[in-house]
Amino acid sequence: MLYSKIEGEGKPFVIMHGFLGMSDNWKTLAGQYVEAGFQVHLLDLRNHGRSFHSDEWSYEAMVQDVYEYCQANHLTRIDILGHSMGGKVAMLFATTHPEIVDKLIVADIGPRFYKQHHQEILAGLNAVDFSVKPSRNDVEEILSQYVPDFGTRQFLLKNLYWKEPGQLAFRFYLNAFNNNLDAIGKPLPDDLVFNNPTLFIRGGNSGYIQDSDLDAIRKHFPNLKLETIPNAGHWLHAENPKMFFELTTEFLKE
């Protein structure tokens, strides 16, 4: 069963992080959704955060995990939000289990194929040798040779934890990503459609959702609303959490 943090009372609202992220990335926004009257379910997807590790890693497997989570927690009608990889999971979940989903929110990802572009990040993560018991500073120094952006490094370093005294490790299951790297870019199957209200939010400085993608998005999600957060990149919810919260809660309460 997936690890989750459940807070609040009200309509169940399931939130899913992106690649190499975890539920903790959404902790602050989750508190605001609780105050707005939702029961928030922050999930760690398989091979991420505190959830289980598996050599099988695909969108179909992640969707099955979320379905089993909903069944186990008696969630029969939910709203669902996913960012990046989590957005792909949310899209596939909503289109294959529309009887469970009332409203869908997708943050800065489309249903199309995305060419693999995480090679440098994965090279940096694979360059860390935990057998020599590096410190947190040592790990950051190694990553800095592959990942020059400070914000991205800090995001990755949130996955470090003390496996035992003096021994750091990553929470995610790196081998699964190394062996299934193409899985993350796969498109939503052509024939899948979700007719309920759907909100796509993109960052104005992000290239993940182009204007040229809109016809394809609308084919899968005909009841589409698109919003853009100006001057925000791919981590739009972290760069402008105020606007992200306002857009999403307005949509959920319509």
Note the beta-strand portion: 15-25%
What order do the helices and strands follow? EEHEHEHEHHHEEHEHEHH
What would you call the structural class? alpha/beta
Shape: globular
Second-tier CATH architecture of the largest domain: 3-Layer(aba) Sandwich
Helix content: 25-40%
CA radius of gyration is 18 Å
Question: How far do the termini sit from each other?
Answer: 32 Å
User: Largest sheet, described in full?
Assistant: 7 strands, mixed
Figure out the total of helices. 10
Q: Find the count of extended strands (DSSP E, 2+ residues).
A: 9
Which whole number gives the mean pLDDT? 96
> What is the multimeric organization of the chains shown?
single chain
- CATH C-level class of the largest domain: Alpha Beta
Low-confidence stretches: none
Strand order of the largest sheet: 1-3-2-4-5-8-9
Q: For this structure, what is the CATH homologous superfamily of the largest domain? A: Alpha/Beta hydrolase fold, catalytic domain
Task: Using the coordinates shown, work out and report the CATH topology of the largest domain.
Answer: Rossmann fold
Features:
Pimeloyl-ACP methyl ester carboxylesterase, two-stranded antiparallel ribbon, hydrolase activity, hydrolase, AB_hydrolase_fold, globular, Rossmann fold
Explain this structure to me?
The chain is an alpha/beta fold and 254 residues long. The chain has two domains: 4-114 and 186-253, Alpha/Beta hydrolase fold, catalytic domain (Rossmann fold), CATH 3.40.50; 118-179, no CATH class. It has helices at residues 27-35, 59-72, 85-96, 119-126, 136-144, 150-157, 174-179, 214-220, 236-239, 241-252; strands at residues 4-7, 11-16, 38-43, 78-83, 101-107, 160-164, 167-170, 198-203, 224-229. A seven-stranded mixed β-sheet has the order 1-3-2-4-5-8-9. Strand 6 and strand 7 (167-170) form a beta hairpin. It is globular and about 55 Å long. It comes from Flavobacterium phragmitis. GO terms for molecular function: hydrolase activity.
